[in-house]
């Protein structure tokens, strides 16, 4: 339908509204436009009504034309607006697919994040980190993703790496943004794009990697070589690179990429490499959890064990001890039948094999031992293997390894307590894992202090790094934090039996870190009061200011109300050279008590400082002006609270 006559009538009426109605009887252009509208009037009632309205306007007496003009113009405008359209010449083409999602978040809410990602200056990392902690969904928004890609080249390296870690979790959908404007000679920012693409898209980005490699320079080329491990189709290209690159990082990247590929050609090359360059191979194996990597790790480990068994009386060279230590580190995250068979072999080592002599620092033979439990104990190769298995279970979802860990503990004893408990936490019911653990705990009344500490080690290993994830309703092992985003491993642990928390309070202050982590964020209405009392006493005796804050926050979440005199007691107990005035202020500020009671607690500490009963850092620095400022703030807040309660 041609609406041009309607628009002509609209234009003439608007001109009449400006010029006045006195000349309407002589407006031949309006009359001609009205004639053109006749065809539309015959086709539609609404246009017929417009036609009749304009006719009435033209025939109306002069004194009635003003109202008739407004009526006609209002109707024409209303109809014209309903017919509005926009366009441009040319053929219609589909829009390219978008990247990201449209989150229900206003631009003003995203503005601080976008400013931190694209701006300069200090403090930006904290903004991005805190936003990711509180609103991770913002980072999949189509307005934020381009800023994240731009941020891969941020001058502050920690922020650039943080952005890369976030983008790596976005999946293949982020590939178009990373590929757009890519410069194969662009330096570290472009190398990060390749690394993110390899993690987010994998083999789906292989054509892009191959297309960019010929013209790539320096670190971008290195990143592209490493990314070729995403597809078995790249085997021959990587082997060719290994032949051409005689040494250097390009050769290392190509070999690491081959370890990602489970192909016969790659296996032949790597098997020969394991025989001729064993130490270099261990470096490559440390960076992969592929099945090929698992097989080669087991192969090298077994080869060294074969050599040890071939001459059981010989003193082992120091380099063999070092290689065994490295192998246990490399073995973390490795799985598969060859690895399971290796653990069986390690668990079955005889005491004579475990107590082999090795060359000491000055050439004098010493019994072979390794640093275990984060360096707190010296243990046998079997114990170190058990701890390696525990670390693997916490990072890899593998029920077969869980069954193996339980079986090995039953066969080999205490050296496999830590992996057996870890496996039970993951694969058994909460009641089963608690009951089993309780039966393997030695109480302090029965053991000396040293043996008691040794008995706690497996608990620290199995329960350490467990964090409650409220949205999933399970515990997960924390694997990455600062400067990376929060990252949890895949295995999950169902809600712990509530008896764990009472048990942990009986094990002394050395398990407080674990107890606090397990309780944080978990709603437990039936938590025994003895647990809260234990935490309160711990807070009063802890010199770690950050730990005290965590306990105060935790007790507040569980409804603890008995805070009278807390700050004064804490200050007196720990008022040595390490106590600072601002720590006292922050502790009081964090207490879940009314402002009036906060002011009261600060006055108590102030009196103790004046009486010399609390010593402070920086020659007893205690700023009276800051004290008064806090007191004024809390007293004013108390007055407002009182007025609200009165109302």
Question: Features of this protein?
Answer:
single chain; 647 residues; mainly alpha; 3-stranded antiparallel sheet; two-stranded antiparallel sheet; 35 helices; 5% strand; extended
Commentary on this structure:
The protein has 647 residues and is mainly alpha-helical. Among the domains are: 4-82, no CATH class; 331-497, no CATH class. Helix content is 61%, strand content 5%. It contains 35 helices and 7 strands. The strands form 3 sheets. It has a 3-stranded antiparallel beta sheet with strand order 5-6-7. Strands 1-2 form a two-stranded antiparallel sheet. A hairpin with a 4-residue loop joins strand 5 and strand 6. Helix 24 packs parallel to helix 26 and helix 33 packs antiparallel against helix 35. It is extended and about 125 Å long.
Summarize the structure.
With 647 residues, the protein is mainly alpha-helical. Helix 16 packs across helix 17 (278-285).
- Enumerate how many helices there are, as a single number: 35
What strand line-up does the widest sheet have? 5-6-7
Number of strands: 7
How far from one another are the termini? 68 Å
Topology:
Blueprint: H1 4-19, H2 28-36, H3 38-43, H4 45-59, H5 65-82, H6 107-118, H7 124-134, H8 145-150, H9 157-168, H10 175-179, H11 188-200, H12 206-212, H13 218-227, H14 235-244, H15 249-258, H16 264-276, H17 278-285, H18 291-310, H19 318-330, H20 337-347, H21 351-354, E1 357-359, E2 365-367, E3 370-372, E4 377-379, H22 381-395, H23 399-412, H24 417-427, H25 430-439, H26 449-463, E5 466-469, E6 474-480, E7 487-493, H27 499-505, H28 512-519, H29 529-541, H30 545-557, H31 566-574, H32 581-590, H33 595-610, H34 617-620, H35 624-646
Antiparallel strand pairs: 1-2, 3-4, 5-6, 6-7
Helix pairs in contact: 1-2, 1-5, 4-5, 6-7, 9-11, 11-13, 12-13, 13-15, 14-15, 16-17, 17-19, 18-19, 19-22, 20-23, 22-24, 23-24, 24-26, 29-30, 30-32, 31-33, 32-33, 33-35
């Amino acid at each position: 339908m041609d609406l041009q006559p309607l628009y002509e009538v609209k234009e003439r009426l608007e001109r009449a509204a400006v010029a006045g109605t006195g000349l309407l009887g002589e407006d031949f252009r309006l009359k001609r436009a009205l004639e053109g509208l006749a065809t539309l009037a015959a086709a539609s009632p609404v246009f017929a009504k417009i036609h009749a309205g304009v006719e009435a306007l033209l025939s109306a007496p002069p004194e009635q034309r003003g109202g008739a003009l407004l009526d006609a113009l209002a109707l024409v405008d209303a109809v014209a607006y309903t017919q509005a359209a926009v366009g441009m010449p040319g053929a219609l083409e589909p829009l390219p697919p978008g990247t990201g999602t449209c989150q229900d978040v206003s631009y003003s809410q995203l503005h601080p994040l976008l400013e931190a990602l694209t701006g300069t200056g200090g403090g930006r990392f904290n903004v991005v980190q805190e936003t990711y902690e509180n609103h991770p969904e913002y980072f999949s928004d189509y307005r934020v993703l381009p800023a994240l890609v731009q941020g891969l080249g941020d001058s502050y390296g920690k922020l650039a790496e943080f952005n890369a870690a976030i983008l790596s979790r976005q999946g293949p959908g982020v590939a178009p943004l990373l590929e757009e404007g890519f410069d194969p000679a662009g330096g570290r920012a472009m190398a990060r794009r390749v690394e993110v693409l390899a993690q987010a898209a994998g083999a789906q980005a292989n054509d892009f990697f191959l297309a960019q490699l010929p013209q790539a320079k320096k670190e971008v080329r290195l990143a592209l070589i490493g990314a070729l491990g995403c597809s078995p189709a790249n085997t021959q290209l990587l082997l060719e690179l290994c032949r051409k690159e005689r040494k250097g990082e390009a050769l290392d990247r190509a070999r690491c990429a081959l370890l990602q590929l489970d192909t016969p050609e790659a296996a032949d090359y790597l098997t020969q490499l394991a025989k001729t360059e064993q130490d270099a191979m261990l470096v490559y194996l440390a960076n992969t959890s592929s099945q090929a990597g698992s097989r080669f790790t087991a192969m090298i480990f077994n080869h060294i064990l074969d050599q040890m068994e071939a001459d059981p009386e010989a003193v082992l060279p120091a380099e063999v001890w070092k290689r065994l230590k490295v192998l246990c580190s490399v073995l973390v995250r490795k799985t598969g039948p060859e690895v399971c068979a290796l653990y069986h072999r390690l668990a079955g080592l005889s005491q004579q094999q475990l107590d082999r002599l090795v060359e000491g620092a000055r050439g004098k033979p010493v019994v072979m031992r390794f640093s275990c439990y984060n360096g707190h104990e010296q243990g046998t190769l079997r114990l170190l293997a058990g701890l390696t298995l525990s670390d693997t279970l916490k990072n890899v979802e593998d029920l077969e390894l869980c069954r193996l860990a339980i079986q090995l503990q039953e066969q080999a004893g205490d050296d496999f307590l830590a992996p057996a408990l870890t496996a039970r936490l993951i694969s058994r019911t909460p009641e089963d894992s608690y009951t089993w653990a309780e039966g393997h705990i030695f109480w302090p009344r029965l053991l000396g202090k040293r043996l008691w500490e040794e008995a706690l080690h497996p608990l620290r290993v199995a329960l350490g790094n467990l964090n409650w994830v409220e949205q999933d309703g399970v515990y997960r092992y924390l694997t990455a934090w600062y400067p990376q985003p929060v990252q949890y491993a895949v295995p999950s642990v169902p809600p712990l039996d509530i008896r764990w928390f009472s048990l942990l309070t009986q094990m002394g202050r050395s398990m407080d870190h674990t107890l606090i982590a397990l309780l944080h964020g978990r709603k437990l209405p039936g938590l025994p009061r003895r647990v809260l009392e234990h935490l309160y006493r711990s807070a009063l005796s802890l010199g770690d200011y950050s730990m005290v804050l965590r306990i105060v926050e935790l007790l507040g979440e569980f409804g603890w109300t008995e805070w009278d005199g807390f700050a004064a007691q804490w200050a007196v107990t720990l008022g040595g050279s390490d106590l600072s005035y601002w720590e006292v202020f922050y502790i009081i500020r964090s207490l879940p008590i009314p402002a009036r009671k906060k002011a009261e607690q600060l006055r108590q500490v102030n009196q103790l400082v004046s009486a010399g009963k609390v010593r402070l850092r920086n020659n007893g620095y205690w700023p009276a002006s800051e004290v008064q400022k806090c007191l004024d703030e809390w007293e004013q807040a108390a007055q407002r609270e009182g007025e609200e309660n009165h109302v």
